[in-house]
Amino acid sequence: MYGLNSPHGFPQGMRTGRREDSVPLRSPLLEDFRTNKTRKWELRDIFGYIVEFSGDQHGSRFIQQKLESATSDEKEIIFNEIVPHNALQLIQDVFGNYVIQKLFEYGTQIQKTALANTMEGHVLQLSLQMYGCRVVQKAVEYILPDQQASFVREIDAHVLKCVKDANGNHVVQKLIERVSPDRLEFVNAFRGNVYELSTHPYGCRVLQRCFEHLPEEQTRPLLDELHKYTTNLMQDQFGNYVVQFVLEHGNVHDRSLMVSKLRGQMLNMSRHKFASNVCEKALVTADPESRRLLIEEIMSPKQDGVSPIVTMMKDQFANYVLQRALSVAEGEQRELLIGKIRPQLTSMRRYSSAYSKHLISIERLIEKCSQGLPDTTTTTG
Questions:
Q1: Per-residue pLDDT tens over the stretch 123-145
Q2: Which helix (H) or strand (E) holds 207?
Q3: 304 pLDDT above the threshold of 90
Q4: Which of 11, 54, 5, 53 is nearest to 29 (CA)?
Q5: Mean pLDDT along residues 251-267
Q6: The predicted structure's pLDDT at residue 357
Q7: Burial zone of 53 (CB within 10 Å; 0-12 exposed, 13-18 middle, 19+ buried)
């Protein structure tokens, strides 16, 4: 009854998740299941109809819930109805993909391997598909290393396409997180493309996963390339996140290099929508001496005699950096910074109400600092 004779090659009675498809007729059993709320349904009641139920919103949810506590025999029956002939269709289905994910979670290792076998030869296509990419990610978590390596090989030549794809990038991230680094040769394809990836909405995430999970020998060429573009990346809507990640999680050498690029640029960068976030992160993560120098720069008047503090207090982004500097400054430097801000607060209060929101936050922070209380204010803009 549920052979592959629909116009799209999907079993009858199953949605493909594409809105333009006409909704196939439901079997009497599925219709009864959807309307009969008084009956206590069990998995055995729908054997022979697992594929159709998996492709239905309510049927899929029922199977997912039951799989968590199903017996081995029940799981075997469900598995055999889906694998191998109906697995690929369900993997790409709006509701069916969740059933397949549950099979990876609760099936035996033999079942997981057999299920993943049905995906081999289709991993790239599935990785680029909205629902398939979720199943590929789940599979990577539960299959054995050799099969993981097989998945990697399928996207190897197309990894940059996957990285830049709304679905595929999640698969690449999962592979970096879960697969042994020595099997991830595709990382070599990122060399020479670090700036492009850093400034891409998905590429920036993939690079961060590389820095988080891969060993020094694989990340060093990428980091060395990254350092060439630090100043530009700080000002990029996506690149700034990569720089912030290195500032927070990188080694001493890489963090110091990043911070050094801010020297002499604190005021300009603080006033920038994206770079201001990097300034805040640098103030928090820098070593004590580097932090002291950055704050010193904020306090030192420019050649025209104008204090950066005044400019920062008025600026919609820089005022947050100034607040962060207040919260991390220590000892005499903190007292000096407070001493330079207080007179400006009074002056600005007298002549303008335009900055009242910024000023209230700064005043509260000064009050806490003066009392020696720990700062709990979130200042990120």
A1: 999 999 999 999 999 999 999 99
A2: helix 203-213
A3: no
A4: 53
A5: 96
A6: 67
A7: buried
